[in-house]
UniProtKB/TrEMBL annotation:
GO terms for molecular function: hydrolase activity. Its EC number is 3.5.4.2. The lineage of its organism: Bacteria, Pseudomonadati, Pseudomonadota, Alphaproteobacteria, Hyphomicrobiales. It catalyses: adenine + H2O + H(+) = hypoxanthine + NH4(+). This is Adenine deaminase. SUPFAM superfamilies: Metallo-dependent hydrolases. The keyword Iron does not apply. It comes from Pseudahrensia aquimaris.
Length: 326
C-alpha cells in the first residue's frame, strides 16, 4: 500500500494516458473503428513497434481541443486520486497536427485541463513539448520552433520520444538548441532500446539533464559513475520496461542497482493503460519488487520535485507540501 505516500510524476505521455474507455467514447463520437487496437477494454499490441502503432491509432481520436482538455483533466484527476501533488506530461504537436489541431490549440487545451484539475483537486502540472524521433530532425526542429515562438507559462520543457533506433542523437542537436535557447528544461528518451552510448549522447550532444528511462546505463559502470557525479536524473518506468520486454521481469530490472549506486531516480508510469500501470502501481512495484521502504519512496518523490521543470517558488511550495504531508 502506498496510498499514504505523496507522489510526483515526471514521465507520462498525455496521449499514452488515454484510458481505452475514453478512446472508445471519442471513437463513437467520430465514427471511428478501434476494434483493431482495443479488445475487451484493453489495448492490443505485441512489441515496441506495434505498441507505437497502437498508440498512434488511439491518438487519432483526439480531434478537437476539447478532447485534449478532457484527456488532461482525466489524467490529472486520476493522478490526484493517487495522492500525487505534481505531474509533468509530454505533449506531441505532431500527433495533434495530424488531426488538424494547431500547436497553440493543443497547449491551450491541455493547460485548461491541468488548471481545471488543479481547481478541483489541488494538483500542480506542467507540459513538456515532445518531438517524435522516428519522424526525423526536420519535424523535431519545427516542433521546437513552435515552442519557442509561443511561450506558455505551463510549458517548461522539451523532450524526445519515439523509436530510439531511428536516426542518431546528433541529428536532433539543433531542435534541442532551439528549445534550450527558449529556456526549456531538457529530457530525452535514451537507454531504453539502445545502450549506454545513447545515454551519453543525449547528455553530451543534446544537453539533457534528465533521461527518459536510461535503464540500459546499467551496462556501463563508468556511465553510472558519471550519472551520479553529474546529478543526471533517471525517469524510471519499470512497469513500461517489463511490459515492453526491455527486461523479462522485475528481477532483472536495474532500479535497485541505480539507487544503490546513488543515482537520482524517479518513478513513472510512461503510458499507464498501455502497460497496465499507474503512478501508484509504480510506487507499489518499487516497494514490492525492489524493497523500497516508505522513506525511500518519499525520497523518489523529493527527487522528482528537485528535478521538476518548474520555477523555484513552485518547487519550494511543493517541497514544503511534501514535507508537511509525508
Ligand atoms: N516508452 C516509450 N518509448 C519511446 N517513445 C514513447 N512514446 C510513448 N511511450 C514511449
Ligand atoms: Zn516515455
Amino acid at each position: 500500500m502506498t496510498a499514504h505516500i505523496p507522489k510526483a510524476e515526471l514521465h507520462c505521455h498525455i496521449e499514452g494516458a488515454a484510458e481505452p474507455e475514453l478512446v472508445l467514447r471519442l471513437a463513437r463520437k467520430y465514427s471511428l473503428d478501434m476494434s483493431g487496437i482495443i479488445k475487451d477494454g484493453r489495448y492490443v499490441w505485441s512489441d515496441f513497434t506495434s505498441f507505437l502503432n497502437c498508440y498512434d491509432q488511439a491518438s487519432g481520436v483526439f480531434r478537437e481541443p476539447e478532447d485534449y482538455r478532457l484527456l488532461a483533466y482525466d489524467y490529472y484527476s486520476r493522478l490526484a486520486d493517487q495522492n500525487a501533488i505534481y505531474g509533468e506530461v509530454f505533449a506531441s504537436p505532431d500527433h495533434a497536427g495530424l488531426m488538424g489541431i494547431s500547436y497553440t490549440e493543443l497547449i491551450g487545451a491541455i493547460a485548461d485541463g491541468i488548471e481545471d484539475a488543479k481547481a478541483d483537486h489541488g494538483i500542480e502540472g506542467r507540459i513538456l513539448v515532445t518531438c517524435v524521433r522516428h519522424l526525423g530532425p526536420e519535424s523535431a526542429e519545427q516542433v521546437a520552433e513552435q515552442l519557442a515562438a509561443n511561450p506558455h507559462p505551463l510549458v517548461t520543457g522539451f523532450g524526445m520520444a519515439g523509436d530510439e533506433r531511428a536516426f542518431e542523437v546528433a541529428d536532433f542537436a539543433n531542435a534541442f538548441a532551439i528549445a534550450s535557447d527558449a529556456g526549456m528544461g531538457l529530457t530525452a528518451h535514451a537507454g531504453e532500446l539502445r545502450g549506454p552510448q545513447s545515454v551519453r549522447d543525449v547528455i553530451d550532444i543534446l544537453g539533457a539533464t534528465r533521461i527518459g528511462h536510461g535503464v540500459r546505463s546499467v551496462e556501463d559502470p563508468l556511465l553510472l559513475e558519471r550519472l551520479r557525479e553529474e546529478g543526471i536524473v533517471l525517469e524510471v518506468c519499470a512497469g513500461s520496461n517489463v511490459a515492453l520486454n526491455i527486461y523479462p521481469g522485475f528481477d532483472s530490472h536495474p532500479l535497485a542497482e541505480f539507487l544503490d549506486a546513488g543515482i537520482a531516480c524517479t518513478l513513472n508510469s510512461d503510458d499507464p493503460p498501455y502497460f497496465y500501470t499507474s503512478l501508484a502501481r509504480e510506487y507499489e512495484i518499487a516497494q514490492k519488487h525492489f524493497g523500497l521502504h516508505d522513506h525511500d519512496l518519499i525520497a523518489c518523490t523529493r527527487t522528482a520535485l528537485d528535478a521538476a521543470f518548474v520555477d523555484e517558488k513552485t518547487r519550494s511550495r511543493l517541497l514544503k507540501q511534501l514535507a508537511d504531508t509525508a
